[in-house]
Amino acid sequence: MSRPQSLQEVADDAVSGRKSFGHALDEFLDAFYLDHPNKPQQQRRLDEAPNFTGNPLQDAWLGAVGEHLARRWGLDVPTWTRRPQHYALNGPTFAPDSRPLRHILIAQSPAAFKSRMIFTLAEPLQRARFPRAADAS
Amino acid sequence: MKDAAAYAATLLRLPDDWLNNAVGGFTPESESDDFFLLQGDYPRGDRPGLKVFMAKPEYLCAMKLKALTRASFEDRDFNDLVELASTAGIEDAEQLMDLFFRFYPDEELDPVAKARIPEAIEAIRRRRPR
User: In this structure, what are the phi and psi dihedrals at residue B49, rounded to the nearest 5 degrees?
Assistant: First the structure.
């Protein structure tokens, strides 16, 4: 089974049931980080608007990931991330859902997540393939 | 090794980067042979060939504890930690901390990971058969 090459494919894989949303997203992130520092290639992976999954949490994550990756790695924020469906959560979500960490998550969550009522760590979306700090300009 | 991985990718139609060597970010400066189990020896005996080693659950558990500083959609590192710690027979926070420092004697445990240890122990206890 191939790795999702774009956020559009992440949404499609989740909706079709080929992969769980989290699994598909992690595999996409691996592909995205392997492109580092090829910014045009990373931009292409973000540009295409994903279909909505119909799950407000997943759709909020997709918008947050698209916006956050663009900001974090010096790319253009795709306009699709501003669609209202990516801001449709009715209440806050904590990732991880850990009560002792909540105050940290509320303080640290990057704007792309916080604006969608998702509270997470300062450097979310890390993978083993996350570019080392020295390379991440 | 890279040639062998590329050959396997062609043969099995895998992505070029199927063999993930990025885990190095989570391994300590030096790894002892004691961290691994011999999983396979091909061909067996004294002839040269391929020896496959598997990381012990305790070592994977320590790595997962280190990885708790990253957030993911499904919190898989946390769930993996709970499963591995259960397999390793961990029963309380002190044992989990001891296990971490057995593999990473020169490192500090990140405060985010430390804050999650009580809930990990709670989850481990919930998994036990009654």
Answer: 180, -150
